C-alpha cells in the first residue's frame, strides 16, 4: 500500500466517491428571478451592512419557525399525531439558516440531510433501548447520549454535519412526544428542515445570498472526473519516465562495464584513444581504469546530454 492510498484511507472523505456522479448545477438555465432566490449569482456576492441584515434575520427566523409550528399544530394529517408544539433543535437550526448563512454548517445539504440522518439514528437507538421498557424509563438519557454520539459519527461520515442534528437525536429518546411519534419523527424533521430552508431562500436572497452552494463548493460531475483522469494520466506518464530513466541508467552501466573489459580499443580517425559519451551510451577504452567518482562524473554528463536531447533545454 503506497503512502497516498494510506493517506486517503486515514482521511476518509465520502465526497471523493460521490461527487464524480453528482450532476453539475444547472441553476443558470432558470429564469433570473428563480435562480436568484436559489442562491445563484453571476458575480461574487458582497454582503450588505450588518444593520440591514439584522431586521431581515429577525423576520426570517420568525417566519420559518412560525410556519413549521403552525403546520405541526394545525395541519390535519399532522396534528392528529400530536407532535411537539415546537421541536427544540429547529431553534438552533434557525440561527444557522437565517443568521450564519455563509457557514458550511448552514447549507441545505447539511440542514436537511443532517437533521434527517440524525432523526433516523436517534429513533433507531431509542427503539433499541425500548426493548427493555424498564431500563428505558429510568435511563432514557443514556439512549439520548448514545443516539447523539452515533448521529455525530454518521454526519461526519457523510459530510452533513449540522450541530442541531445532535439535539434532534437526543430528543428522539428524551422528549416524550417525540418518542411517541416513533418513525414519524423522521419525516416530520425532514419536512421541517425543507420548510425552513425554503424560507431561508426566500428571505435571505432579498439582500444576501443563500445558499452559498447546494451540495459542495468543490467541482462535481464530469469536471471532477476529467480532473481525476488528468491526474492519473500525469502519474502514469511520470511513472513511465522514471522506468525509462532507470533502464537507461542500467544500460549505461552495462555498456561501461563492457567497454572496460573489451580488448579491442576504440580508436578515432586520428588514431587516438577516446572516451565516448552519448545520451544513452558510455564507451571507455579498456586500458583506462575508471574510479567510482569518475564514473559518477561520466553519468552526470550523460544525464545532461540525455536531458537536452529529450527536451531541447
Structural notes for this entry:
With 313 residues, this protein is an all-alpha fold. The protein folds into 2 domains: 186 residues, no CATH class; 74 residues, no CATH class. Helix content is 65%, strand content 1%. It contains 14 helices and 2 strands. A two-stranded antiparallel ribbon has the order 1-2. Helix 7 runs antiparallel to helix 9 and helix 7 runs parallel beside helix 10. The longest helix has 41 residues. About 4% of the residues have low confidence.
Question: How would you summarize what this structure contains?
Answer:
This protein has helices at 3-10, 15-18, 32-36, 50-74, 76-79, 88-98, 108-129, 133-138, 140-157, 164-174, 176-181, 184-204, 221-261, 292-311; strands at residues 276-277, 282-283. The longest helix has 41 residues, at 221-261.
SSE layout and pairing:
Blueprint: H1 3-10, H2 15-18, H3 32-36, H4 50-74, H5 76-79, H6 88-98, H7 108-129, H8 133-138, H9 140-157, H10 164-174, H11 176-181, H12 184-204, H13 221-261, E1 276-277, E2 282-283, H14 292-311
Antiparallel strand pairs: 1-2
Helix pairs in contact: 4-6, 4-12, 6-10, 6-12, 7-9, 7-10, 7-12, 9-10
Amino acid at each position: 500500500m503506497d503512502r497516498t492510498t494510506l493517506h486517503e484511507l486515514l482521511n476518509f472523505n465520502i465526497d471523493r466517491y460521490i461527487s464524480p456522479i453528482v450532476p453539475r448545477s444547472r441553476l443558470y438555465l432558470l429564469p433570473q428571478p428563480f435562480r436568484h432566490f436559489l442562491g445563484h449569482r453571476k458575480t461574487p456576492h458582497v454582503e450588505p451592512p450588518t444593520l440591514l441584515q439584522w431586521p431581515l434575520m429577525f423576520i426570517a427566523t420568525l417566519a420559518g419557525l412560525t410556519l413549521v409550528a403552525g403546520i405541526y399544530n394545525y395541519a390535519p394529517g399532522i396534528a392528529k399525531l400530536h407532535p411537539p408544539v415546537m421541536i427544540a433543535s429547529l431553534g438552533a437550526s434557525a440561527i444557522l439558516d437565517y443568521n450564519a448563512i455563509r457557514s458550511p454548517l448552514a447549507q441545505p445539504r447539511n440542514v436537511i440531510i443532517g437533521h434527517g440522518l440524525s432523526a433516523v439514528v436517534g429513533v433507531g437507538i431509542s427503539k433499541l433501548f425500548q426493548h427493555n421498557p424498564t431500563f428505558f424509563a429510568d435511563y432514557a438519557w443514556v439512549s439520548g447520549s448514545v443516539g447523539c454520539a452515533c448521529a455525530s459519527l454518521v454526519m461526519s461520515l457523510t459530510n452533513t454535519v449540522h450541530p442541531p442534528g445532535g439535539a434532534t437525536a437526543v430528543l428522539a429518546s428524551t422528549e416524550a412526544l417525540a418518542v411517541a411519534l416513533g418513525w414519524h419523527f423522521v419525516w416530520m424533521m425532514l419536512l421541517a428542515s425543507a420548510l425552513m430552508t425554503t424560507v431561508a431562500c426566500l428571505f435571505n436572497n432579498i439582500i444576501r445570498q443563500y445558499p452559498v452552494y447546494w451540495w459542495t463548493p468543490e467541482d462535481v460531475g464530469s469536471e471532477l472526473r476529467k480532473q481525476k483522469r488528468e491526474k492519473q494520466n500525469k502519474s502514469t506518464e511520470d511513472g513511465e519516465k522514471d522506468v525509462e530513466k532507470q533502464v537507461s541508467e542500467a544500460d549505461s552501466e552495462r555498456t561501461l562495464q563492457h567497454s572496460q573489459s573489451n580488448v579491442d580499443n576504440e580508436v578515432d580517425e586520428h588514431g587516438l584513444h577516446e572516451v565516448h559519451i552519448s545520451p544513452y551510451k558510455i564507451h571507455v577504452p579498456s586500458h583506462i581504469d575508471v574510479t567510482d567518482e569518475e564514473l559518477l562524473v561520466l553519468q552526470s554528463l550523460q544525464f545532461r546530454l540525455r536531458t537536452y536531447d529529450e527536451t531541447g533545454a
